[in-house]
Write a structure and sequence with these properties.
The protein is α/β, with parallel strands linked by helices. It contains 8 helices and 7 strands; from the N terminus they run βαβαβαβαβαβαααβ.
């Protein structure tokens, strides 16, 4: 039996990378999925790739409260419930030392990566509590467990969502809503390509080799490997798991 039969899931940052891989897995497990992303053409391409009537799309900016309220309300109106919210949308920002980091970019990273999660919690928690439960999964990072040189805004944002998660867990109590964070190491996606370029323009392969050398498993992870952890947290297999930090990092957090 599919583990998400009858479940409705919203995935932000759903047009590519981890979001799209998770959508693919959720649909295969029987879920109805609403993909949310700022990039309308990428959303349509993702939906076409998934090729399922169980997939819907909403173009929205997770940093804008009216738009977050809108896609949560639209999901509830169309499907009658919200069982899983995967707060996955995020940006890496600039690759620069703190002294040179653009303030405007710092603010933008926190707006997407932190306010976006806060707004997701704010508008998804009430309907989940009313229906007696649900699962909220937040993409943090290995950078949310340790520092990241030249990634100050990104690292700060990924630490911040752990605090949001913990506060929300204490507020929700025995409502049946579970909230957890996932902490990927470098994953083979567009974001890591941008970070490699930012660290060593024109020498991206060397940057990748240097980053890989810090991963005990000796390689980048895949989006599908992160998606499988999200699937566990979305299903009843994790019904007693809340307030947790789940590394998907090839051993990076061990050092």
């Amino acid at each position: 039996m599919a583990r998400l039969n009858g479940k409705v899931a919203v995935i932000t940052g759903g047009a590519g990378g981890i979001g799209l891989a998770t959508a693919r897995l959720f649909v295969a497990e029987g879920a109805t999925v609403v993909l949310v992303d700022r990039d309308e053409p990428a959303l349509q391409a993702a939906a076409a790739e998934l090729g399922s009537e169980a997939v819907g799309t909403v173009a929205a900016d997770v940093a804008d409260e009216a738009q977050v309220r809108g896609f949560i309300a639209a999901t509830l109106q169309r499907h009658g419930r919200l069982d899983v919210l995967f707060c996955n949308a995020g940006i890496e920002g600039a690759i620069a030392p703190i002294a040179d980091y653009p303030v405007e970019m710092f603010d933008r990273v926190l707006a997407v990566n932190v306010r976006g999660v806060f707004l997701g919690l704010k508008h998804a928690l009430p309907p989940m509590q009313r229906q007696g439960g649900g699962s909220i999964i937040i993409t943090s990072s290995i950078a949310g467990m340790r520092g990241g040189a030249h990634l100050s805004a990104y690292s700060a944002s990924k630490h911040a969502v752990v605090g949001l998660m913990r506060s929300a867990v204490l507020e929700t109590g025995a409502s049946g809503v579970r909230i957890n964070t996932i902490h990927p190491s470098p994953i083979d996606t567009r974001m890591m390509q941008a970070i490699e370029h930012g660290r060593a323009p024109g020498a991206e392969a060397a940057a990748r080799q240097m980053i890989t050398s810090r991963i005990p498993a000796g390689r980048y992870g895949t989006a599908d490997e992160v998606a499988r952890t999200a699937l566990f947290l979305a299903t009843d297999d994790s019904r007693f798991c809340t307030g947790g930090r789940y590394p998907v990092d090839g051993g990076m957090s061990a050092g």
